[in-house]
Amino acid sequence: MDRLYRGIESGLLGLGFCLSLAAFVALSAPREMGLQVAVTLPMLSVTADIAN
Questions:
Q1: Residues near 37 by beta carbon (within 8 Å), at least 6 away in sequence
Q2: End-to-end Cα spacing for the chain
Q3: Alpha carbons 10 and 43: distance in angstroms, whole number
Q4: Superkingdom of the source (predicted)?
């Protein structure tokens, strides 16, 4: 059972690393003027207007 938990933990750590890497790459990508970003979660909605 310990091996299962270690496998799940390793998988979640890898997923977290990949998501954080993708976030940094997305931040460094060139953007168009007035790009609007919207994130909708089941109980939360966030909208940001990003201007360079």
A1: 47, 48, 49, 50
A2: 51
A3: 29
A4: Bacteria
- Would you call 8 exposed, middle or buried from its count of C-beta atoms within 10 A (0-12, 13-18, 19+)? exposed
pLDDT at 14 over 90: yes
Task: Tell me the Ramachandran region of residue 34: left when phi exceeds 0, alpha when psi lies from -120 to 50, beta otherwise.
Answer: left
Q: What is the 3-state secondary structure (H, E, C) of 14-44?
A: HHHHHHHHHHHHHHHCCCCCCEEEEEEECCE
Query: How many domains does the chain fold into?
Result: 1
- Tens of pLDDT, residue by residue over 15-26, are 999 999 988 888
- Give me the domain span that covers residue 41: 2-50
Whole-prediction pTM: 0.52
